[in-house]
Design goal:
By secondary structure, the protein is an alpha+beta fold. Helix content is 47%, strand content 10%. Strand 14 and strand 15 form a beta hairpin. Helix 25 packs parallel to helix 28 and helix 27 packs parallel to helix 32. The N and C termini lie far apart (132 Å).
Length: 1466
């Protein structure tokens, strides 16, 4: 055997170069011969060619049919012309007339078909006008003329004449309406035409060939049972009469479509069945079909959705421009000064693959590695110039560049359209680097050419721009532009100095001061020198701010020098405590923007949007920075006039910064930081997901025994883990099929325990997976640990031990009730579907996530992902799925049988949901594939999609299939793989002359001699291939070698058991941030057992409290301190994560409030300013003390800073019983509660604070009269609302009358007039809030008497007696009135009757005085409960004094009355 050193050998043998039939020299690195060599299911090339011929014949038939239809349409349009049509040949949009003609034409055709035949003259006329020889029974067949299927040779000859260039021939053969004399002299007697009455009556156009629009109606057949209009009408009607009848009544067949058979009706369209939203959801819109059929990767199309991307191949020049742009962006982010040459070339190649070959990242990563890797010639090791992350970064930059290029081209087109030629703009346009530069240039063009752009918009039909003219535009009509040169250099010159950091331009100094120079430019608009100077400064500031170079240089400065300062708002100062998520950024001072590298700026922006923070962005050492910029603009002179001009220039610069540039830079930096933070969060979330799914199947100690490396799994769960919840388990074999399942009520009973034990034993799983909905799962884990241990003890040595593992169930929770789960396992209960997802997670994690779709967003991948738009997060999450799915490959035929596997097809390189859906549908019709190339041969995918996807689509378990179809080797490299296999076995090329031998040799190498591939000298052969293909192939050869040695070897990380901490989190949901030693958490006592108390945490985790941790004092039992069922705060002493148990202390010394803040609080930012925080706290305290002297603030939702009039105005439109809390005018230790009694009546309750606890809240006890309340809420509920309920109760009584005392008096007067000898009484609201008047009359002639009722929280007070209800109040009133009447009768002297009728007597005057004194006492007594204010008359009602002798008499013995009443209650 020849040695390796032989220069003529590249393997172990004489070098075999590819023959012409096996190789190609194409730029896309393809081997055309693979498409034939990989067709084992086809007999010969001739059969394939024959199939192609048949397809072409079908296409030719369709083409001919379309041509015949087109020719027939032209015949109909060119020959059948009405006179009316000729008169209307000029262009018209009157579509209504055309529609009428078509309808009439259609009716005539229907009439003719009903008659069943045409007369000979009709047929002659048809033959003459169309040139078609018609059979005499071919009347109905005329309808098929349009389809071109009944044409004859004569018609073909005739049509040649129709479409000749001889216009005279066309004119000769053009027919006319037969009701008018034809222009060529042909006449038809009217008598002959009247025989065709059926036709003439309805056809005023004479068209007997259907329009193209009515093609669907050509084959309509009228129902058999119907009669035509002509069969009903009598003979002898004139044509005019028939035409009028048709116009009025039609032919009676407008609704005959409803009688048609189902097959005759129009086939329903998707738009007729589904709503547009449903079509979009099902991907059935027209746009979806375009994406589905276009031979461009679907994700590439979707990425540019909304952009005008034609997907034409980029030119080499475009590729160079884009790659150079991307390289500059990547170099800037990496901070490189000089990038390696290989780095730049690699980027160019990658961009070329994206935009010329339309390849996706996975394909480039696997099959174009030679273009972004390099081999060390000494060591032979391969180093990546670009990583997979770099490829995705270039992929993202490609999109950004396309957006940049589109905007740049749009600006060019706009300039050309507006005829704006400017050398400076063109120069700047050639230098633009970013989208911001284009925006700057656009603003500059709008400023400089605003007049011309406005004029052009006014002349065009485009939407008109607002015509508000700026000062810059107005000044052009004045003398100001001539004055501007006195300020020195222009904005453009300043921009050149600034961007170059060099003073290329200097201002020329003026000998006169600015005011003197300005006098010469005074005009009507600017009538003094100050206005002239101000206008000049404004114009120069605007020009300076809009100059592209100034903006670009300033962005450069701000990117390097910008800093962020954060301060809390008044709201944020109180809301953001030490445990708040944004507390670390509460006081940040001058943090450089380069330090924001972990997404925290999103939290700051969220705090700003919630009005919790204020964010200020500026540059560090602003004054020094401003001075440096001013040096590029001001003069170096020292004269007074120069200094005055420099002052003017500084004002211009400051104005430009303040009004334009600083706000613009602030916005730019915000957007830059926001974008970078969002990208950081998205990439971190994507990496988190990829780490979870880039894991192989479960591997136990006996993993080598697993079939195909996939374990047999039993997954078990009890759901919520409650007493009534059943325990369910499923068994899944190595193929991923659910073979068996079991459900038992509980594992606590022995018989059910044995059932589950036998189930697991019989199924012999490799692993048992456990999970549940909550922390109760810990009980199931303990059961299964015991059960699995028992099973393993009884196993023999030949069978491996069963493993037990807790499974991450985040995907299973989303799956169990999803639509997919319902469709796959509708007969299974929820918990069993949950178990199926757990088993699948152990067998193939990635497949559990590919089917989630947008439900992926429901899984927390990053703490800040909620601050990023969902579409952006989902875009990056899908990227992780794409990476892993393409590394794993998809069994294409298996997707037909399993929708679960089919979910992964959309993530295959080149595919997407639409293309995957299309392929599955086509395969469902054509059947399973026998090879990868069948995708192209059966026209399932176009070529470019096939190039992207081929190596990731696996053809497995198919008899006679090429073994290479189950490797990552691309079909374009099959010939290379076969040569490598042949050379490894030292087989001559002559022995590999047919397809079957090649397949056999490759199979033999893969299965029997994979190590022989190590003897091949790949480097030498790569040199030959580079000469042959003009492309590097070294990494491709290495890739082929690895695949032949291990087809589709698993690239994923090996499964590792979850750690104790991970298991604890999966079961309880308690992370270290939520539960750690030292935390104070609420706990609920569940049981007391002497010296131990059991408790449960909020997560369901169990805890133990020993007697030593119950109290700081010595106690004999935990029951002395704790009660079962109560909730208390406890300190976590120890967490046993293995047993899911927590030791807790409830001692007062351990559970002091806020004692765990130092453990819970997040670390402060590096730039946190404690000094600023301290100064702000002191400042706010001083401000509060100052405000406290003027305004009282109470932390209550009903508090308003009102006075009593404002409070009443506030309550005007509100319901009775509504209230406000407000400051009191009686002092800082008083509060007033104003509540609405009724319309126009409000009670103001005075509240005294006994102790003031703080400046912001009412934390002290409150006092109203002699009643003490703990807080405002208690006062409102137990006093104000209670009083309001009593008011409502009394107002709801039948004896209550609205309208006050006057209304009550009218009611009582009417009642006593109706029954003169009867007494009457009633209630009304008093003019004093919180009181009622009880009015009564003894008879019709008696005066109105009034007693005052005070409303209490628990009843009513009449005189000095309280009554709990209205009925008690009425009974008390009657008893008191009866007792007073008896007393009056016993003590009344003989002249009393006279006194009753002489109100001016001395005795009556005394009674009136006593009554007034008593009323004053009652009013003073009422003030104990609050001062009242009423909108009514502040004086007493006249009846209270004018007829008060009995009333006053009744009040003359208060003690006696009280005694009598008290005696009655006793």
């Amino acid at each position: 055997m020849a040695g390796r050193g032989d220069e003529n050998r590249f393997y172990k043998r004489t070098p075999h170069t590819l023959s012409d039939s096996q190789s190609t020299h194409s730029d896309d690195d393809t081997t055309p011969s693979y498409s034939r060599a990989a067709r084992p299911s086809h007999n010969s090339d001739e059969e394939e060619e024959g199939e192609d011929v048949n397809d072409d014949d079908d296409d030719d038939e369709e083409e001919e049919e379309e041509e015949d239809e087109e020719e027939a349409r032209k015949v109909a349009e060119g020959f059948i012309v009405d006179d009316e049509d000729e008169e209307e040949e000029q262009p018209s949009d009157d579509s209504d007339q055309v529609t009428v003609r078509r309808k009439k034409r259609k009716k005539v055709e229907e009439c003719k078909s009903q008659k069943g035949h045409l007369d000979e003259e009709d047929l002659d006329l048809l033959e003459e006008n169309t040139g078609i020889k018609l059979a005499r029974s071919a009347g109905p067949k005329l309808k098929r003329l349009k389809r071109g299927r009944e044409t004859t040779q004569n018609s073909a000859v005739r049509q040649d004449a129709f479409f000749s260039d001889d216009e005279q021939a066309l004119a000769t053969h053009t027919p006319h309406h037969y009701s008018h004399p034809p222009q060529d002299g042909y006449e038809q007697p009217y008598e002959e035409r009247t025989r065709y009455r059926h036709r003439d009556a309805y056809d005023d156009m004479g068209d007997f060939i259907a329009d193209e629009d009515e093609e669907d109606d050509l084959d309509e057949v009228r129902p058999k049972g119907g009669q035509s209009m002509m069969d009903i009408l009598p003979e002898g009607l004139s044509e005019d009469v028939l035409m009028d009848m048709y116009d009025i009544f039609g032919d009676g067949a407008e609704y005959e479509w409803a009688l048609l058979d189902e097959e005759d009706k129009r086939e329903p369209q998707l738009a007729d069945i589904f709503e547009p939203s449903e079509l979009a959801e099902r991907m059935l819109t027209e746009q979806d079909e375009v994406i589905r059929t276009l031979d461009i990767p679907e994700r590439l199309q979707m990425r540019f959705e909304g952009m005008k991307r034609s997907f034409e191949k980029s030119t080499p020049e475009q590729t160079r421009e884009e790659s150079a742009w991307i390289a500059r962006q990547m170099i800037r982010t990496r901070g490189w000064d000089q990038p390696p040459e290989k780095f730049l070339k690699s980027i160019t190649h990658i961009v070329d693959f994206f935009n010329r070959d339309f390849l996706e990242v996975p394909h480039i990563k696997d099959h174009r590695r030679d273009f972004f890797t390099e081999v060390d010639k000494l060591t032979g090791t391969t180093a990546e110039v670009l990583t997979t992350e770099d490829l995705w970064e270039i992929y993202d930059y490609d999109y950004k560049y396309q957006s940049f290029a589109d905007r740049k081209e749009a600006l060019k087109e706009f300039m050309n359209k507006c005829h704006l030629m400017d050398d400076y703009v063109q120069e700047m346009l050639n230098k633009v680097e970013r989208v911001e530069d284009i925006a700057d240039l656009t603003d500059y063009v709008s400023l400089k050419f605003g007049d011309r752009i406005n004029a052009m918009h006014q002349q065009s039909k485009a939407p008109k721009r607002p015509m508000n003219r700026s000062l810059h535009e107005i000044s052009r009509q004045t003398k100001i532009p001539a004055f501007l040169p006195f300020f020195g250099i222009t904005a453009r010159q300043l921009g050149a100095n600034y961007i170059e950091n060099n003073r290329r331009y200097y201002p020329e100094d003026s000998l006169s001061n600015p005011e003197i120079e300005a006098q010469a430019y005074i005009s009507g608009s600017f009538h003094d020198e100050k206005r002239v100077l101000k206008a000049a400064r404004d114009i120069l500031a605007q020009e300076m701010a809009f100059d592209p170079q100034v903006r670009k240089a300033m962005r450069r400065d701000w990117e390097l020098r910008a800093v962020v300062t954060v301060r809390p708002t008044d709201k944020g100062f109180n809301v953001i405590d030490e445990l708040h998520a944004i507390h670390p950024f509460k006081y940040i001072t001058d943090k450089p923007i380069a330090s924001f590298n972990n997404g925290q700026f999103l939290q700051i922006l969220k705090g700003e949007s919630d009005n919790l923070l204020t964010v200020k962005i500026t540059v560090v050492d602003y004054d020094m920075w401003l001075h440096r910029i001013a040096e590029f603009y001001i003069s170096d002179g020292y004269s007074d006039s120069v200094q005055q001009w420099n002052d003017q220039r500084k004002q211009v610069l400051e104005l430009a910064l303040k009004d334009y540039l600083v706000p613009l830079m602030d916005k730019y930096i915000r957007e830059k930081l926001r974008t970078e933070a969002q990208e950081y969060v998205c990439k971190a979330a994507s990496k988190h997901l990829q780490d979870k799914i880039n894991v192989g199947p479960f591997r136990g100690p006996d993993a080598d025994r697993y079939k195909n490396g996939i374990p047999r799994v039993v997954a078990i769960s009890s759901g919520n883990g409650g007493i009534k919840d059943a325990t369910m388990a499923v068994f899944m074999n190595a193929r991923g099929k659910v073979v068996d399942q079991i459900q038992v009520p509980s594992l606590r009973e022995e018989r059910y325990w044995k059932e589950m034990l036998d189930f697991i034993k019989s199924r012999r799983p490799n692993v048992v997976g456990v999970a549940g909905y909550n922390a109760e799962t810990r009980r199931l884990i303990k059961h299964m640990q015991t059960m699995v241990g028992e099973i393993n003890q009884g196993k023999d040595s030949n069978t491996g031990a069963i493993d037990l593992v807790v499974v991450d169930d985040e995907a299973a929770r989303l799956y169990k009730n999803s639509k997919r789960a319902q469709e796959e396992f509708n007969e299974f209960p929820e918990v069993m579907r949950y178990c199926i997802a757990l088993a699948r997670r152990l067998q193939n994690p990635v497949l559990e996530y590919v089917g989630l779709g947008r439900d992926l967003l429901a899984i927390p991948h990053h703490p800040l992902q909620h601050l990023v738009p969902e579409d952006q997060v989902f875009f990056y999450l899908e990227r992780s799925l794409i990476n892993i799915v393409n590394d794993l490959g998809v069994d294409l035929n298996a997707t037909l049988r399993s929708p679960y596997l089919a979910n992964a097809l959309q993530y295959v390189c080149g595919f997407g949901p639409r293309k995957a859906q299309s392929i599955i549908k086509k395969m469902d019709i054509s059947g399973e594939l026998e090879s990868r190339t069948a995708l192209v041969l059966r026209k399932l995918t176009p070529v470019n999609t096939f190039m992207n996807a081929a190596s990731y689509l696996r053809i497995r378990d198919v008899d006679g299939a090429d073994i290479l179809d189950d490797t990552r080797i691309h079909p374009q490299d099959y010939e290379l793989a076969r040569k490598m296999a042949g050379d490894a076995l030292e087989i001559d090329e002559d022995e590999m002359d047919d397809y079957d031998s090649k397949v056999a040799i490759v199979t033999r190498v893969i299965k029997e001699y994979p190590d022989k591939l190590n003897d091949l000298i790949l480097d030498d052969y790569a040199v030959v291939l580079r000469k042959q293909y003009h492309q590097p192939k070294r990494q491709i050869l290495e890739h082929i070698k690895h695949e032949l040695q291990g087809p589709y070897y698993d690239r994923r990380q090996r499964y590792s058991r979850p750690s104790l901490e991970d298991t604890f989190i999966m079961v309880t949901g308690e992370t270290k941030q939520a539960l750690s030693e030292g935390f104070i958490v609420p706990i609920t006592i569940t049981s007391l057992r002497g010296k131990i108390a059991n408790c449960v945490l909020g997560s369901g985790l169990e805890g133990m409290i020993y007697i030593d941790n119950v109290s700081d004092d010595r106690v004999m039992s935990v029951g002395d301190v704790l009660q079962s069922g109560e909730t208390v705060n406890g300190k976590v002493l120890r967490i046993d994560r293995d047993k899911f148990l927590v030791d807790v202390s409830v001692k007062a010394s351990d559970t002091k409030p806020n004692s765990d803040f130092h453990l819970r609080k997040l670390p402060e930012d590096k730039y946190y300013d404690r000094l600023a925080e301290s100064m702000d706290i002191d400042k706010r305290k001083a401000t509060r003390r100052k405000q406290a002297k003027n305004t009282r603030v109470i932390n209550h939702p009903l508090f308003h800073s009102f006075n009593h009039r404002q409070a009443e105005s506030y309550l005007v439109d509100r319901q009775r019983g509504d209230l406000v809390i407000r400051p009191s005018s009686r002092g800082y230790d008083h509060i007033a509660v104003t509540w609405k009694v009724d319309e126009g009546i409000y009670q103001h309750v005075d509240v005294l604070e006994l102790k003031q606890s703080n400046d912001y809240g009412s934390g002290s006890k409150l006092k109203v009269d002699d009643t003490i309340f703990e807080d405002l809420d208690e006062l409102i509920v137990t006093y104000v609302e209670a009083v309001a309920r009593k008011v409502e109760e009394l107002m709801a009584h039948p004896k209550y009358r609205a309208g006050g005392l006057e209304g009550l008096e009218e009611h009582l007067a009417a009642s006593t007039r109706a029954n003169p000898k009867m007494s009457a009484y009633g209630f009304c609201l008093s003019e004093k809030a919180g009181y009622f008047d009880l009015g009564f009359k003894f008879n019709a002639n008696g005066p109105l008497m009034r007693w005052v009722i005070k409303v209490l929280p628990d009843g009513y007070r009449l005189r000095d007696t309280a009554h709990p209800s209205v009925d008690d109040l009425i009974n008390g009133f009657k008893r008191r009135q009866a007792a007073e009447a008896n007393n009056r009768r016993r003590s009344h002297h003989p002249s009393s009757h006279h006194l009753h009728h002489h109100p001016h007597s001395h005795s009556q005057q005394q009674q009136q005085q006593q009554q007034q004194q008593q009323q004053q006492q009652q009013q003073q007594h009422g003030h104990h409960h609050g001062h009242a204010h009423s909108h009514g008359n502040p004086h007493a009602h006249p009846h209270a004094h004018g007829h008060g002798h009995q009333h006053s008499h009744a009040h003359s013995h208060p003690h006696a009355h009280a005694h009598t009443h008290a005696h009655h209650y006793l």
